[in-house]
Design goal:
- With 590 residues, the chain is an all-alpha fold.
- It contains 20 helices and two strands.
- The protein has helices at residues 2-12, 17-30, 46-77, 83-101, 123-146, 153-169, 183-213, 217-247, 256-287, 318-324, 360-368, 372-380, 396-400, 407-410, 414-431, 434-449, 460-485, 494-513, 520-533, 543-572, and strands at residues 105-107, 455-457.
- The protein has a two-stranded antiparallel sheet.
- The N and C termini lie far apart (64 Å).
């Protein structure tokens, strides 16, 4: 009917026919996307690639300051290793993970939370948007780190991408539904991953606690040594599965029929190594009190008894520590033991901040005699000169409620804890660096081709660049997160720390295989809380700090999204100088 009326109208008003055709043409054009004349033209906007290169460094820096510190926080707090040793190990394992195991290809848009084909007609708009992703994500994570809040850098990047999607296309530019692996699935992970990892870590720790730690000192030590091969099998089996399913991007799609036998075989291999090398060394070190450094376990059979001397200082027993906690005042030290690889000493920790037990006058005198380089290092990397694991006075009541095992029995779990955190760091470098280099890889893809693809190549030099920035972030700001996640959340020890990392790795491994995105940061925090509750007292966990951490998780996505969206909107809609007026040409044309 409407078509008939329109036809009659045009037949009687033939002079309007050209205008009607023009209107139809304009309407048809408006309904389709139009290619920007710059599509397919590479090497445009050199200022954009320079700008993006700088902000990619900031994003990688923030990941090192927050995420990497997260992996080693428990080991430092338990005094398994020192802060300086943690930085050295993290720098090595993160860089190796980035360069040797990192993915050579990444998604053009992280987590595909908005459609990449929305930008295919304007590739350089996508490049500008991805550069602002690094800005919004990096600035938020640096601010969170300064506030000692461990946040998910993955969720910060996803939130930043969400910001440019909404700024460019409105709410329709973002995938929201849970079934389509959209934003609601990320929201669900805020609750799923910490609860599951906390439950797993609690189960692992309770088994260790009741099978080994709660026994009388001698029985606990002997039983722990006897079970070391089983622990080696389980721990390194979980590590192998974690690396296959999550840690190494190239192995993520490997079928079960390959990964399961390989995982079991690796676990058996390390179980045999533990039985051959670690059990005899632990027996001499813990039962016989020989002062054998850890590295001598590989040639201990050629070392005569007593060649390295004996530990003469008596370590406090479990009974001593529990009686010390019986009153209203907590003991002024946590689990006491030397850092991994150092000669055995049972010195009381928790002395004056950063002075290693020296008097304040001596400490002040040494500070005055510091040379210029040391003074610079204290400003650039203050954590190197702090006792990160020191117990805070305001946490004394919380620590007093924690179960204390015999320090000599705790020694058994140091090598296991060190193994888990090192592989955690290796996997982080291989997997999570894409949060920072991925957006810049997209910018580089557009800059070098003028086109948009669903995948962006990651050059080797970019992985190395990101790895260096990540290490610098750890060295300069890592102490903020290590001190917050260590003994401030609950009392740490090697047995607790190793079970925390094991439960978090197991959780990430299983959920990654199921295709459910979870954050390693959330898993570590949840696992720490779960193990803290195993003390049998809810006050053995710092709930106020946990509330701050959880609040940081919730606001990470929207905060990074708002910052990124505003920056992207401001830059993309900003006025452009008129060509020929001399702007950015080095001289004025007037």
């Amino acid at each position: 009917m409407l078509l008939t009326m329109s036809t009659r109208f045009l037949s009687t008003n033939k002079s309007l026919l050209p205008y009607f055709c023009l209107a139809c043409t304009i309407a048809g054009t408006a309904a389709t996307m139009v290619d920007n004349p710059e599509v397919g033209i590479p090497w445009l906007y050199k200022g954009l690639i320079t700008w993006a290169f700088f902000w990619a460094f900031l994003d990688a820096y923030s990941i090192g300051a927050n995420d990497v510190a997260n992996a080693f926080a428990n080991s430092v707090a338990a005094r398994t290793i020192t802060y300086r040793q943690a930085c050295l190990l993290a720098c090595i394992f993160e860089l190796v993970g980035c360069v040797a195991l990192g993915s050579a290809v990444t998604d053009t848009i992280k987590s595909k939370i908005t459609q990449v084909n929305y930008f295919k007609n304007d590739p350089y708009v996508l490049a500008l948007g991805m550069s602002t992703v690094n800005i919004g994500s990096g600035l938020w994570v640096v601010m969170a780190t300064a506030l000692s809040m461990p946040v998910s850098t993955t969720h910060a990047v996803v939130g930043a991408v969400l910001g440019i999607g909404i700024a460019a296309w409105g709410t329709g530019g973002v995938i929201w539904s849970y079934e389509a692996k959209g934003f609601l699935q990320i929201v669900a992970s805020w609750f799923i991953s910490p609860v599951v990892s906390g439950a797993l870590s609690a189960i692992f720790y309770l088994v260790t606690k009741f099978v080994i730690l709660k026994n009388p000192d001698d029985v606990a030590a002997r039983r722990g040594i006897a079970l070391l091969p089983l622990y080696f099998f389980f721990v390194f089996g979980v590590i192998a599965g974690f690396m296959c399913m999550k840690g190494i991007p190239a192995l993520k799609s490997t079928p079960y029929k390959v990964t399961v036998p390989v995982t079991v075989a690796i676990g058996i291999f390390f179980g045999i190594l533990g039985y051959v090398f670690c059990v005899p060394w632990a027996r001499r070190f813990i039962i016989d009190n020989e002062n054998l450094p850890w590295y001598t376990m590989f040639w201990q059979f050629a070392i005569p008894k007593g060649a390295y001397g004996y530990v003469t200082d008596e370590a406090p027993t479990k009974g001593d520590m529990e009686s010390a906690v019986g009153g209203d005042v907590a003991i002024p030290q946590q689990y006491t033991g030397q850092a991994f690889g150092e000669p055995a000493e049972y010195a009381i920790s928790g002395s004056a901040f950063g002075d290693n037990g020296k008097g304040t006058e001596e400490s002040a005198g040494s500070e005055q005699s510091d040379n210029f380089l040391v003074k610079v290092l204290k400003v650039v990397s203050p954590g190197m000169f702090m006792d990160i694991a020191e117990l805070q006075e305001e946490d004394a009541d919380m620590h007093a409620r924690a179960f204390q095992a015999n320090p000599k029995t705790e020694e058994l779990f140091k090598i296991l804890q060190l193994s888990t955190c090192c592989f955690f760091s290796l996997a982080h470098g291989a997997n999570d660096l894409a949060n920072a280099v991925g957006p810049f890889a997209t910018v580089w893809m557009v800059y070098s081709t003028g086109m948009v693809n669903s995948k962006a190549d990651v050059p080797l030099w970019l992985l190395f660049y990101g790895g260096i920035a990540l290490d610098i972030g750890l060295l300069t700001m890592g102490h903020q997160i290590m001190s917050a996640l260590g003994n401030r959340l609950t009392l740490q020890s090697p047995s607790r720390g190793f079970n925390i990392e094991l439960g978090a790795m197991f959780c990430v491994m299983v959920f990654s295989r199921l295709g459910i995105p979870v954050s390693t940061t959330h898993c570590i925090s949840g696992a720490t809380t779960g193990v803290g509750l195993c003390n049998g007292d809810v006050k053995a966990v710092n709930w106020k700090l946990l509330g701050v951490i959880f609040g940081g998780w919730i606001i990470t996505c929207p905060a990074a999204g708002v910052v990124t969206g505003l920056i992207f909107w401001a830059v993309i809609s900003a006025p452009n100088p008129t060509p020929g007026n001399g702007f950015f040409e080095g001289h004025y044309h007037g």
